[in-house]
Amino acid sequence: MNPLVWIVLGLGMGLIELFSTTFVLMWIAGASVVTGLLAFSMKQLGEQTAIFSVLTALLLLLTRPLVKRWRDKKSGFQSHISELVGERGVVISRIEAGKTGMVRVGSDVWSARSASSQDSFEPGQWVEIMEVRSSLLVVGPRKSS
């Protein structure tokens, strides 16, 4: 196969990776570009495919766990979002019964909804996080401690 095909495929996958941030296509794109560079000296498609396959597998196996660990550290609140349950936050935009408002927990601002269909909360009022649904906090009245 023409070496430029490998390189263009690799660059295309790299571009897609920039928008998806899955950190999977990055390794395939890298293997494709390296295969394209090596393909200038080898003409057999079988050799090129073998190089591509081995490079992809090695890159995924050796570096994917490192990137996963780095991503978890970088965006730790996402991997530990369930730890917000039981924390307290302050309402910064009114939470009407059945509607969404905003709550500040620490230095982060979250969308929040009342746990009860009857409770509404005003700005400045303290609430307790009862549940986390995706990136929405379900809040209730602050329990006295």
TrEMBL record:
Transmembrane segments: 7-29, 49-67
Membrane topology: Multi-pass membrane protein
Primary localization class, coarse: membrane
Domain NfeD-like C-terminal per the UniProt entry, residue ranges: 83-141
InterPro entries reported for this sequence: Membrane_assoc_protease, NA-bd_OB-fold, NfeD-like_C
Keyword Membrane attached: yes
Entry's localization field: Membrane
Keywords: Membrane, Transmembrane, Transmembrane helix
GO cellular component labels: plasma membrane
Pfam family, one: NfeD
Name this polypeptide is given: NfeD-like C-terminal domain-containing protein
Organism encoding this protein: Ferroacidibacillus organovorans
